[in-house]
Design a protein that fits this description.
13 helices; seven-stranded mixed β-sheet; binds zinc ion; Quinone Oxidoreductase, Chain A, domain 1
């Protein structure tokens, strides 16, 4: 029978069909620290002895919990010992390594990767001047076929096609039950997934990145994977794992864009242009795209934007004034009391971020590489009563943003920050796949370059130098 008050034996837990809340209760999975995506290293990690378990957020450093979860790992699995290639960030290097897979944990899924998307989240790993103590597989999600499942996995079976999403969505934690699967609490600590030739342990899904991506084989807790049943090519599906899903989430999840409203989108990378498409699908009247990079503005126009603005040509108040001109109030001159609608877009979406890597020749640089100015302009542009949705706040530079005194005093604007833009992966990703099937979301145009598995590092560089809208590794 199940013991709810002391340590839960995993085999017993599986048999008694209790939810993973029992594990959470005993602390084995009490690892969720929303937003604190920093490596937390145990003492074991410092010395590189024995199993190293890393935890999210504030529960970092519990060697007992690490050991407990590690001890639950199956002694064998059909994929244990499998060799595969992955892009690994370790110490002062970022190199493709041949790894050996460890036996799975009962709650894990092993995926043979079909395609992996690229996003700016990985770009920091190009900076190898900072020593990284733990070896991690880079990338940020992807799509593939389930190769192996742990004995407790229920969501998928061998042979299923799955999207490995940016955030888990367990469906039973307090956040998921509250409709906030985007900040799902249920995460295993990051277990060692594989080893390098010299036995250096390598982590995959876990901090600081979330899911890994650039690897022929991916390992993740089942809460991170979403089964999909579709003929959409894997290269296109893969972008839903992060950038495409985030852009659609900005327009469809938590505070969906209402038909007939006006939208301004700062930043037209793969997230921003996915948001342009989402705004079009939602029926927005005016969709204003703002980005210094010409080819991105042109692509956004093809995919649904109604107006384009270059922030290098329209600086400061001129940019805000132009946005207001494009979204004027509706009162005819000389008339009063007509249900006045204030000027300015109802929704302002920020997907600009910072510029932290040298741009390719010919790619226009923003005036402010920190991305902070775009955030401030987003707040200035939104109309009274409108919504500002951000991707950066709470992640790096967003925490440093300050706003002019009094900027918030005028009216009732709502700021909506969000992890994965509010996407609840199990609920929303299958819906987004249908949008691709229907031709409503053009995923193919979002894939700027398709690269081979031996070009994984180059894929990150493409994102960093912004030489293409995005890049995808095709493993098939
Ligand atoms: Zn959850
Ligand atoms: Zn990402």
């Amino acid at each position: 029978m199940c013991d709810h008050d002391s340590n839960v034996d995993l085999a017993e837990y599986i048999h008694c069909s209790l939810s993973r809340r029992d594990l959470l209760k005993t602390g084995a999975a009490a690892v969720a620290g929303a937003g604190a995506a920093l490596f937390a290293q145990t003492a074991a990690a410092q010395t590189r002895q024995g199993p190293i378990a890393l935890f999210w957020g504030q529960n970092a450093g519990s060697a007992e919990l690490a050991a407990q979860v590690e001890a639950e790992r199956q002694t064998t699995s059909r994929t244990a010992g499998m060799k595969f290639r992955a892009l690994v960030r370790y110490e002062n290097s970022l190199t493709t390594e041949t790894l050996t897979l460890k036996p799975v944990h009962p709650l894990q899924v092993v995926i043979r990767t079909q395609a992996s998307q690229t996003c700016y989240s990985s770009v920091g790993q190009l900076n190898t001047t900072t020593r990284q103590a733990n070896a991690v597989v880079t990338g940020h999600g992807g799509v593939g076929i389930v190769e192996d499942v742990g004995t407790a996995v229920k969501r998928v079976t061998v042979g299923d096609q799955v999207i490995l999403a940016t955030t888990p969505n367990c469906g039973v934690c307090g956040q998921c039950l509250n409709g906030r699967g985007d900040i799902c609490m249920m995460r295993l600590p990051a277990l060692v997934s594989a080893t390098m030739a010299d036995n250096t342990p390598v982590f995959m899904t876990g901090p600081p990145m979330g899911p890994a991506g650039y690897s022929e084989i991916l390992v993740a807790d089942e809460d991170w994977v979403v089964p999909v049943f579709t003929r959409v090519p894997p290269v296109e599906l893969s972008i839903l794992a992060c950038v495409g899903g985030t852009g659609l989430g900005l327009t469809m999840c938590r505070f969906p864009i209402e038909a007939g409203t006006d939208v301004a989108i700062f930043g037209l990378g793969p997230i921003g242009i996915s948001a342009v498409q989402g705004a079009r699908i939602q029926g927005a009247k005016t969709i204003i795209g703002i980005d210094p990079i010409r080819y991105r503005r042109e692509l956004a126009l093809e995919l649904g934007a109604t107006h384009m603005l270059d922030p290098n040509a329209l600086t400061g108040d001129a940019l805000i004034n132009r946005i207001r001109e494009l979204t004027p109030d509706a009162v005819p001159t000389g008339r009063r009391y007509l249900g006045e609608r204030p000027a300015g877009p109802m929704y302002v979406l920020e997907a600009a971020g910072g510029t932290r890597y040298a741009l390719a020749p010919g790619v226009e640089a923003p005036a402010d590489s920190s991305g902070i100015e775009a955030l401030q302009q987003a707040y200035a542009a939104v109309r009274n009563g409108g919504y500002v949705r951000t991707c950066s706040i709470g992640h790096g530079q967003g925490a440093m943003v300050s706003f002019p005194a009094g900027q918030w005093s005028n009216g009732a604007r709502t700021h909506v920050p969000g992890n994965y833009a509010g996407v609840q992966a199990m609920r929303d990703l299958p819906k987004f796949v249908r949008l691709i099937e229907r031709g409503q979301f053009d995923a193919r145009s979002m894939v700027g370059r398709v690269l081979r598995p031996d070009q994984m590092r180059e894929a990150v560089e493409v994102a960093g130098e912004r030489s293409a809208i995005t890049s995808v590794i095709d493993f098939t």
